[in-house]
Specification:
The protein is of the alpha/beta class and 309 residues long. The protein contains 13 helices and 16 strands.
């Protein structure tokens, strides 16, 4: 027993750390991992990892390594974690990320790299992360990237980019982001969207464009977004929408149009949306929808799926 302690050099607190953060995960349809266990990252006893601890964690066989209590990571520790063979590496508590540390993390060979706690990243760090070869790079905390930072993000070669805290997006930054060659681009914190930015976003060549949190959408911006050539256009959490803007959105030529969690939809706006020619119109979560609006939708929409609250 004494020899074991000396050779492994693992403290009891670190054993508890491993027990806390290791989660075996399965994969649901659509690619989202679902944990079979429950991780409680807020109980982690340490805010950093040594290189030795990181190597030990990297050698584990779980499906999901959840380290959201870690706030700082050295390049040496990142190198150890990058050897993890599971599908998801989550470091949502990181507050800073140097380019060198980012380069090591980008060598992680799993599917999902989650760094949602980072609000600011240098262009060099973003460029390093964009070399990650997995499917999803999640940077939900990143706020309002510059044009150069947006261009660096767009170099990522995976399936999707998710950005939750971008409150506004310049036309130039939007143009750079839409150069991303993956399937899905999600901007889930927008508080405003100019006509030029809407036109730029409509040029995205992937299959799904998702925006959320917009208080309203002008007729011209709605028309610009409807020009998106992908399969699904999602505009979640709209405050209000006029019949004119609804009519423009209904010209979208893809399979699915989603206005989930909208505050209200008038009968006239509902009638305009019902002309959408695709298969699926999603209006789940609309807070205020009258019987007359429901009648307009159920009577006039000709697609195969209509989702109502």
């Amino acid at each position: 027993m004494r020899l074991f302690r000396k050779s492994t050099m693992i403290s009891n607190s670190f054993k508890r750390l491993i027990a806390t953060v290791m989660v075996v995960a399965v994969t649901l349809p659509g690619g989202l991992p679902a944990a079979e266990g429950i991780a409680t990252p807020t109980t982690l006893p340490k805010k950093t990892l040594s290189a030795a601890q990181a190597r030990l964690m990297g050698s584990s066989k779980g499906g999901w390594l959840y380290l959201d209590a870690i706030t700082h990571l050295t390049p040496e520790a990142a190198k150890g974690l990058a050897t993890f063979s599971g599908s998801v590496l989550s470091l949502n508590g990181l507050q800073t990320l140097t380019p060198e540390t980012a380069r090591h993390l980008a060598r992680y060979s799993g599917s999902w790299l989650e760094l949602n706690g980072l609000e600011h990243l240098s262009e060099a760090s973003i460029t390093a992360l964009s070399s990650f070869q997995g499917e999803w790079l999640l940077l939900s905390g990143l706020t309002d990237p510059s044009v150069r930072e947006a261009a660096a993000l767009a170099r990522f070669k995976g399936t999707g980019i998710t950005l939750h805290q971008i409150k506004s997006l310049s036309p130039s930054a939007a143009k750079e982001l839409t150069a991303f060659g993956g399937d899905e681009l999600s901007l889930l914190g927008l508080e405003s969207l100019s006509l030029k930015s809407a036109h730029a976003l409509s040029e995205f060549k992937g299959s799904r464009l998702t925006l959320s949190n917009l208080p309203s959408l002008s007729e011209r911006s709605a028309g610009a977004l409807a020009g998106f050539s992908g399969r699904a256009l999602e505009i979640k959490g709209l405050g209000t929408i006029t019949p004119q803007s609804s009519r423009q959105l209904a010209t979208f030529s893809g399979d699915m149009l989603s206005l989930e969690n909208m505050a209200a939809l008038s009968p006239l706006a509902a009638r305009a949306l019902s002309s959408f020619p695709g298969h699926w119109l999603n209006l789940k979560g609309v807070a205020s929808l009258s019987n007359k609006a429901i009648h307009e939708l159920s009577t006039h929409f000709r697609g195969s799926r209509l989702d109502l609250p």
